[in-house]
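re: that chain from earlier
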Amino acid sequence: MSLRTSRPARAGQYAALLCYLVFLAFPFAWLISTAFKPARELGSLHPTWIPAQPTLENFRQAFDEQPLFQAAVNSLVAAVSAALIAVAVATPMAYAMARHRGRLATAATGWVVVSQAFPFVLVIIPLFLILKNLHLINSLWGLILVYVVWSLPFALWMLAGYVRAVPPELEEAAAVDGAGRLRTLVSVTAPLLAPGIVATALFAFITAWNEFFFALVLLKTPEKQTLPVVLTHFLGAEGVADLGPLAAAAFLATLPSLVLFAVIQRRITGGMTAGAVKS
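^ sequence. v structure.
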């Protein structure tokens, strides 16, 4: 009886998952379709999923109208730098917060929760004034500093959870065998934290790659603007979008995040188990 009742439930779960996947995939599928449609099909009253005459003209026009390559380089530098710095700073902090319970750990946890409650508009003015005094306005390093500070609380929270998942007995056994604290961290704890470090770096990278508001306010010259800001240049003065080139540029802007996740997703899901069973 239980088997019969479980089959409809399982079918319902798969149906719900399929609907969710369709919901997520619809905007991206429509974006790809729009990116390859010629101008005549974009203005049609009866749009179709598959372009009747696919073209690369929208991509050529997008690169001709806006400095997409330079903007992509700026976004890549900002995102990679912010991810690496955030992980490097958050890892030892997360270890200390997870292993040494006390007022400091409690205060750090409270800082993580409170910092995520502030909207961007409340901090942009004091942030702008601070960066202005540091001569970091219209600078990628100023933007990187903002991204690191903004992603650090959540990165710290994520890594602290991974540290707590590592049994303290492993570190105690290494200490009994004569390993020092630094050797224990490098040889025992760090390999088991690799999935958490990769996941945290991916989070910080995607957050910085997609961020728009800080980049819009802090970067003024076109040669230093990031990709999300440059995409807005395809909108006319009256809000009329140059739909074809905009879709082509937006499609190219989504590829790095998708490729990066596809490459490392096995490391995120399976790394903890693989590292735990190695001899």
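The two ends are 44 Å apart (CA to CA).
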